[in-house]
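Hi U.,

Before I forget, here's the chain from the pilot set. I'm dumping it here mostly so it's searchable later in email.
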Amino acid sequence: MLTWGDVRRWDPAAIGRVADALNDGCTKIIAANDDVEAMARFTGWTGDAATAASTRGASLTSTLERLVAEASAVRRGAHEVQIALDRIVAFVRETDELAHRNGLAIGPGGEISVGVPQPDQARVRAELADRVEQGLRRAADVDADFAEILRRALHGEITDQGGTLAQAADAGAAQSGLSIISPPENGTPGDNKAWWASLSDTAKVALLQGNPGLVGNLDGIPAADRDAANRAVLASEIARLQGDPKVKGLEAIQQRLDQSEPQAFLLGLDTGGDGKAIVSAGNPDTAMNVATYVPGTGSELSKIGGDLNRADKMWAAATTSGSPSTAVITWLGYDAPNEITDAASAEYADGGKAALAQFQDGLRETHQGPPSHNTVLGHSYGTTVVGHAAGDDGLAADELVFVASPGVGAHGVSELRLDGVNQDEIGKHVHATVAEHDMINLANVEIAGYDPILGQDPTDADFGGQVFTSAPGTDGWGGYSTEAHSEYWEDNNPSLNNLGQIIAGKPTT
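Structure:
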């Protein structure tokens, strides 16, 4: 039976050396392919001796094909197991460090002892016990996976399927993986989470390497795993789409992923149409305060760089406001209107609301520890998407924020719903702002007694929400400008500080 001390001593690099040695051996045999196949061909030689030599040569070739197939299966299995071991060893190291930071120690048998008494040790001790149990279970799964791969190879269950030595190697590698069931069709985030949890680390690695597109956009999959899958897809799409305008956005995402503070996670990527992407500044699975930012009209993959910069500014503002750990997600997960004329329709909001609601459900499913304080924030037409999502079955969030809204599909806060928020107090959790000179004000004017096209302005007093301060913005013709519509994230704009306050769960001005 594996112990914490055993796993602590595991050396993933040793498994990697086995994979490398098997790969070198297979490469050398395959490189001698012509000489090996020549053993079965004796042109111009006939008779009993020739027949015997040809039969022997064919037998040797068949044996080599089988051995190459088996070695390739073990090589690929060892490579996948090495990556799985890297994940587990990192988990063990993080757990040991968590214990040390809190004056605790984990013994070789998994027992937890107190070194230096500190506050809150009881809670941390319970968390450590859970992590030890989880780590050992994952280690046992990987150990069993590799044993199964070796068993199949040693018992002749890996077949070469005929052909050349190179084909035999490919066939063996294809048979090395364990049987992995597909995710549930049209599954909820909870369904996806349960499916992913049922897989061993080796199986997860095999999926992340072999079929990253299947995993990367599934709500309910942990952020770190979605990120690993989508990074692989990102690299291939940058290479495939050279010359396409979307590459500018893909490269902006890559540049953001390369920055270290805060660490970014690529939670979704789709290059079809105008393109979609979901990028988080900070890990939403571990952050205490999590915000989802939905951009508005004209948003598309090629222009996502500006939205990523806004997310970083909100992360910094929330941190400055006292948030101990924060994640701010740029959610370009819907088809936004391309032009202002298109934004007069609720069609785009209706098309994106279900995806937003499911994404928020997924954040609840994958979050570790006590529930995080979640904010969903829209800008411009993004507020319409947020409002429509919150107006149907509600959103898995604690706060709603409407910045420069043309209307949210509701006449007041009573038509919006948030999980965990008493409906009688919903008004305390709905926040809105609009700059004095923002051109969007013209969209919210009642004409001849008719309501604005997309619903009431959420900054109106009778809407029932909390209105916070923004700078007036750049003045323009008739007192309005398009510049003011995008200035809420300027460093000297009080709206940025207020956004940080809301994300951090603090009062606004």
